[in-house]
Design goal:
The complex is a heterodimer of chains A (about 325) and B (about 250).
Chain A (H helix, E strand, L loop, with lengths): L1 E5 L2 E2 L2 E2 L1 H17 L3 E6 L4 H4 L7 E7 L7 H11 L3 E7 L2 H14 L2 E6 L9 E6 L4 E7 L4 E5 L14 E4 L9 E7 L11 E5 L10 H10 L2 E4 L1 H6 L19 E5 L5 H7 L4 E6 L6 H4 L2 E4 L2 H16 L1
Parallel strand pairs in A: 1-4, 1-6, 4-5, 5-11, 6-10, 7-10, 13-14, 13-15, 15-16, 16-17
Antiparallel strand pairs in A: 2-3, 8-9
Chain B lengths: L1 E5 L2 E3 L7 E2 L4 E2 L6 E3 L1 H17 L2 E7 L5 H10 L3 E5 L6 H14 L4 E5 L10 H9 L3 E11 L2 E8 L2 E8 L2 E5 L14 H9 L2 E4 L8 E7 L8 E2 L5 H11 L4
Parallel strand pairs in B: 1-6, 1-8, 6-7, 7-13, 8-12, 9-12
Antiparallel strand pairs in B: 2-5, 3-4, 9-10, 10-11
Helix pairs in contact in B: 2-5, 3-4
The chains are: A alpha/beta (about 325), B alpha/beta (about 250).
Chain lengths: ~325, ~250
């Protein structure tokens, strides 16, 4: 018996969400009295792979020739490596959302997504986000093996140094999808993983005013986001839309500027630890959900905030 | 082009969520139900494909008779016929299993679901269907064009997008981008009238094997209340975020 953890890489590098999944797997292994085996697809260097040991992986199996977006092949190899595993842990990335359900069918294993807690005992019972974070569900696995996909940023990192043995597999498999290429915004922080998110709404009056939002995000090392109306009008790309039908946000700090706080918006962002609202309207519903608020004009408050944060950082 | 669109009946996005029966069941009282927004993007795209290259759009949903108004809305928007599997949708596996059984008995070129439903947010049904029917899968799909026997797709990846070609048939988990918000259709009177006579067949479930059991629900803890900072003292906010909240 063991806990298997899928460790996703991007261009040969792991991200925080990967180490978070390993930390989670390692804490689960303690509850079950077993060890953690990590699994890595695509080409990742030894130097990067051994980093998994810092969070509790005692072994990593690297399969360089499988494309992680090819869920047919990825789920096949993971199923083969899961014979001994009672729990298989993923971070809930876009790719994991394709692999986990296929793996669930292959292994006849429950697939529980949006996980936010450790299991209470070896009988897998878990808390997960439900109803677009308007509710928390307690759910029980009915199967021998269980797949857990954790909500990024909801667990955190726990260091637990292990000597990590690297094993390379020459498994070759290719599904029927043809991958034509990727476009990624280099240097930008992704919303789902960002510790700080700066988000703005219709209160900004027009797309030409986003310079200060980007500058604020820049000084904070934050990702930028926007409300649904703003993406619908086309002021900002759809990929920045956060809320119930956009991307979920679980940041340490969420700053909402000129966003009134409709229930659909709050549903997607309110699992952030600390929320700040800046709005001219003292009746804006966001102030009921926020931890800190400034009633004022974004065009005056935001430039001052940028200055103050610059001062603080120096 | 025969397209199957899997839809789910969910509480309207503005709904306040409550639970009954000792916090084990969702409280439906006073709730307006709608087509799951993620499914509606796929439904609209399917109708657009049918209009441009011909074919048929079938919608399928798993639920009791109370979900029929939502099915009728899908028919009013432009789906040709509908199937309801007469079972409570309590678990991703059992839902995917029923839909897959229907797919195996019929022939579809494309199966579209939403990326996830906005109620239980499992996000697993599209992937499970693809595995059960042994078809290729693209989830978080934000672009789709049909070219002969294959599909040109764009999927969202963390921090960008990826372009993919897939043979048909295949399974897609859709979201906004598949069509834009302003391309969504509001049923007109003619559509509503036609929907009343379009075929809606009810099939009984083949089995109800559940991999998970829902134990109970709770609502997130309420916030302690908002601490206001004067707009002329923005430095106080920085101070609070650093010393009190410890997030910067």
């Amino acid at each position: 018996m063991s806990v298997l953890v899928y460790t996703e890489s991007w261009g040969g590098n792991f991200r925080k969400s990967t180490f978070e999944a390993v930390s989670y797997a390692s804490e689960t292994a303690k509850i079950l009295g077993t060890n953690v085996v990590a699994l890595s697809l695509e080409d990742v260097s030894d130097e990067e792979l051994v980093k998994l040991g810092s969070y509790g992986a005692s072994k990593v199996v690297s399969i360089p020739s499988v494309n992680k977006g090819d869920s047919q092949s990825a789920s096949k190899i993971i199923a083969e490596l899961s014979t001994d595993a009672s729990v298989i842990v993923f971070s809930g990335t876009h790719t994991a959302r394709m692999i986990t359900p296929r793996l669930s069918v292959k292994l006849a294993a429950a697939c529980i997504t949006n996980v936010i807690s450790l299991t209470e005992s070896s009988e897998i019972t878990i808390k997960r986000k439900s109803f677009s974070t308007k509710a928390i569900e307690i759910i029980k696995s009915n199967t021998e093996k269980t797949i857990l996909s954790i909500s990024p940023n909801s667990f955190g990192l726990i260091e637990n140094q292990m000597d990590c043995l690297i094993e390379r597999s020459d498994f070759i498999e290719k599904g029927s999808l043809i991958f034509e290429g990727q476009e990624t915004a280099s240097g930008k922080i992704s919303i789902s993983e960002a510790e700080i998110v700066v988000s703005a709404g219709r209160g900004l009056k027009g797309p030409e005013n986003w310079g200060m939002i980007e500058e604020l995000a820049d000084v904070l090392g934050a990702a930028t986001a926007c409300s649904k109306p703003v993406s619908d009008i086309g002021w900002r790309p759809h990929s920045e839309h956060v809320g119930q039908t956009g991307k979920p946000v679980t940041a340490d700090l969420y700053i909402a500027i000129g966003i009134s706080g409709a229930i659909q918006h709050l549903a997607g962002v309110n699992s952030s630890k600390v929320m700040v609202a800046i709005n001219t309207d003292p009746e804006a519903p966001f102030f009921k959900a926020a931890d800190y608020g400034i009633i004022g004009d974004a065009f005056e408050v935001v430039p001052k905030l940028i200055q103050e944060i610059k001062k603080f950082k120096n | 082009m025969n397209i199957l669109v899997c839809i789910s009946s969910v509480p309207d996005t503005t709904s306040k969520i409550n639970f009954t029966e000792n916090n084990t069941k969702f409280d439906c009282s006073g709730i307006q139900f709608v087509i799951n927004p993620y499914d509606e993007f796929g439904l609209t795209k399917s109708i657009m494909i049918k209009e441009s290259i011909g074919g048929k759009v079938t919608v399928i949903t798993v639920g009791d008779a109370s979900v029929e108004p939502v099915i009728r809305k899908a028919l009013a928007i432009g789906a040709d016929d509908a199937v309801r599997v007469n079972m409570d949708p309590n678990d991703s596996f059992s839902v995917a299993n029923e839909i897959s059984e229907y797919i195996k008995q019929n022939s579809f070129d494309l199966i579209i679901t939403g990326r996830e439903s906005i109620d239980y947010n499992g996000g697993a049904v599209s992937g499970m269907i693809s595995e059960m029917t042994n078809l290729p899968l693209v989830n978080a799909c934000i672009g789709l064009e049909i070219e002969g026997n294959s599909a040109k797709l764009v999927r969202e990846i963390d921090g960008g997008k990826e372009m993919i070609t897939s043979p048909l048939p295949m399974v897609i988990g859709g979201q906004k981008g598949l069509v834009l918000e302003n391309e969504l259709r509001i049923p007109n009177m003619r559509g509503i009238m036609q929907a009343r006579t379009k075929p809606l067949s009810v099939v009984e479930p083949t089995g109800n094997i559940m991999y998970t059991t829902s134990v109970s629900f709770a609502k997130p803890e309420e916030k302690a209340g908002c601490k206001f900072v004067d707009a002329s003292n923005v430095s106080d906010l920085v101070d609070l975020l650093h010393n009190e909240a410890k997030v910067i």
